[in-house]
Amino acid sequence: MVRLEHIKKVFNKNTVNEKIAIDGINLDIPEGQFVTVIGSNGAGKTTLLNLVAGTYGPDEGDILLDGECVTHLPEHQRARYYGRIFQNPLMGTAASMSIEENLAMADLRGKPRGLKWGVNKSRRGFYRESLKLLDLGLENRMKQNVSLLSGGQRQSLTLLMATLSVPKLLLLDEHTAALDPKTAQKVIQLTDQLVKEYRLTTIMVTHNMQQAIQYGDRMIMLHEGKICYDVQGEEKQALTVAEVVDRFGATLTDEALLCQAPTTGGTGC
Amino acid sequence: MLDGLLRTLPISLEQGFAYGIVALGIVISFRILAFPDLTVDGSFALGGAVVARLIMEGVSPVYGIFLATVAGFLAGCCTGLLNTRLKINSLLAGILMMTVLYSVNLRIMGRSNIQLLTVDTFITPLENLDINRFVPIIAFFAAVAFGIKILTDLFFKTQIGFAMRATGDNEQMIRTLGVNTDSMTVLGLGMSNAFVALSGAMVAQDQGFADIGMGIGMIVAGLASIIIGETLIGKQTVARKTLAALAGSVAYKWIIAVGLRLGLAPTDLKLATGVMVILALGIPALKKEKEEKLHLRGV
Ligand SMILES: Nc1ncnc2c1ncn2[C@@H]1O[C@H](COP(=O)(O)OP(=O)(O)OP(=O)(O)O)[C@@H](O)[C@H]1O
Ligand SMILES: [Mg+2]
Hints:
The complex is a heterodimer of chains A (269) and B (299).
Chain A lengths: L1 E10 L7 E11 L4 E5 L6 H9 L6 E6 L2 E2 L5 H4 L3 E4 L13 H9 L16 H11 L16 H14 L4 E5 L7 H18 L2 E5 L3 H6 L3 E6 L2 E7 H5 L3 H8 L6 H4 L11
Chain B lengths: L1 H31 L7 H17 L4 H24 L5 H20 L3 E3 L7 H5 L6 H22 L3 H11 L1 H6 L4 H27 L1 E3 L6 H16 L4 H24 L7 H18 L13
The complex binds adenosine-5'-triphosphate and magnesium ion (MG).
The site of adenosine-5'-triphosphate has 13 residues of chain A, from strand 2 and helix 1.
């Protein structure tokens, strides 16, 4: 479903600030696989998602989605393949538009847009039912502007929008990091539920190693733009946080990852 | 004072609605697309220039207005393309287009000024009616202005309208939903400047001449109108924003007309307008209120 071939991404090329963010990554994600991605700050996780999404192109290498080479396809033309949630909870929704209008826009992801009414009245019932899944009472506030929602509510809405018109691929960038533990737990469970229900191919970046181990079929660890650990199947099932920290403690300078080491199996710090 | 207010009302309504269409255009660029488009000064004169030249060539005024509107649309698209294709900063793209249009307008007119008082314009039949001149003219401009306002409101309820609003609000997000935001920017600026040129074309006929300098200060006057209108009406929805543009335009023209009656020198008009906008934008900052920043892209 997703295939990266020798992908390299360099920022500020040929300047003193040159930064090799992704350094020759090869990755093949079969259809239906749920991959979690961990790595310390600046490891290149967001860059990797941006490359898959087409926010910018790679300096070297090719990207294939669903067998089609999309390396030079602009972001808006790749949109039909994927739903996406950003690290920043404000980035996934249009604040000055209502919940309903945001959902209606997501409903048309990757489809041609015309001069028909933006909110199709017959879809309203479906939006309401979908919002009920979030259990945040948003189904009664559909006409309100998204700017009135909290970050967590907005991120939950973004999750709904990303899966409303079922995508082939779901890209999640630490989408629970900015949420309070309770909402985060709910959003991650809902994510898991949606991924299983629609058998979505998923790439989920997270800072929470417990999450990375508990969810998904495969875990990838990035370090300085390279994949330094790639585990799946039974081996991943058996993995514990302590084990990973033992092996990679030296490369994981990241507090958010390390501080969970003593509480193996815990949900956060 | 009251007498002055009443006496200046008809002219304020006439001009307020005529220029209100400019404010509607600026709502699309500044408020919806969050694009600080300065093409306006040029495209307003462009509308006047095109219609004046065409009328002199014997084209019917109504057809002339239509072509002037198309010319404005194209001018706006050019600004959009400068920004999206050539990656020129949004402010600079508008200023460049405004400057280019100065020469274009001179070419179109062949001179810096065309008189229209002696020829038939769309105003002529309205003025020949057997009633007070103001009644049919105000009715006409109000009808056009509200007609455009309603069409604009409806447009922004369509799928493309949603995509355009989202482009101004959160470009990254709507691109992820498959919208080509560059196209939206170009289309929106085209619409915006089409409105502006339409207004220019009608104003030229109303005042009886087209002049190379008729667009100077139009952007600031339009912004002043929008700010006044938003204070009176609010800006929560698109319909409110467009209504605010029209109401604000009338209020602005009224304030100016009363000011002139009270002794404001016509040469100081743009100074007064500028001060008005500076105060409106600056007072919140001075009061250290939560800074209500003009959310703009590409600056
Ligand atoms: N647009 C950019 N311009 C220049 N450098 C960039 C840009 N985007 C990312 N980088 C650099 O590339 C590296 C990887 O950044 P990236 O955002 O992918 O990290 P990340 O793994 O997502 O980190 P975090 O966990 O903090 O989100 C960093 O060193 C960053 O400074
Ligand atoms: Mg990141």
